[in-house]
Specification:
- Forms part of the ribosomal stalk, playing a central role in the interaction of the ribosome with GTP-bound translation factors.
- Belongs to the universal ribosomal protein uL10 family.
- Strands 2-3-1-4-5 form a five-stranded antiparallel beta sheet.
- The chain has six helices and five strands, in the order αβαβαβαββαα.
Length: 173
């Protein structure tokens, strides 16, 4: 029979899962308290938060929320990063921290109801941010219009330069 504390924790995890765009699972063994604080800070800057829960309680919360089973990802000590904003930004924050500190291991996670392994999470972290993608899209859309304006203005500019050159020649003479 489950105890009251575990039932409350499962409900707390379910509440955390409710408003997230992604959840990443990391292994934090070997990190000092200072390093964990720095990790939490960088995760907060990416509009996410980190929590440490028992794997069995996370399995129950995922099952209750009808989210995918994470299987072997939920083994050993795990910390869970709940991304409420851009999932790429939080994955990037974890990956950047893992580059600086080899003790942090990305185990996997889930996004949009799909479970991902460590390699997929690292690939997601390598994607450009939402803002960068929007900027690239707008640049791609506006580029043909800018070229068309230049083509249309070309003859007028050429004519204006020719008239200016003729005026300069006449004033010099």
């Amino acid at each position: 029979m489950p105890n009251k504390h575990n039932i409350e924790n499962v409900a707390k995890i379910a509440a955390e899962l409710e408003g997230v765009s992604a959840m990443w699972v990391i292994d934090y063994r070997g990190l000092t308290v200072k390093e964990v604080e720095a990790l939490r800070r960088s995760i907060r800057e990416a509009d996410a938060k980190m929590g440490v829960y028992k794997n069995t309680l996370m399995r129950l919360a995922l099952e209750n929320a009808e989210l995918p089973e994470l299987g072997d990802i939920l083994s050993g000590p795990s910390a869970f990063v709940f991304a409420t904003g851009d999932p790429v930004a939080s994955a990037k924050a974890i990956k950047d921290f893992a580059k600086k500190n080899e003790n942090l291991v990305i185990k996997g996670g889930m996004m949009d109801g799909v479970a991902y392994g460590a390699a997929e999470v690292e690939a997601i972290a390598a994607l450009p941010s939402r803002e960068e993608l929007i900027a690239k899209l707008l640049g791609t859309i506006s580029n043909p219009m800018v070229k068309m304006v230049r083509v249309c203005n070309g003859p007028m500019e050429y004519f204006a330069r020719a008239v200016s050159a003729i005026a300069d020649q006449k004033s010099a003479a």
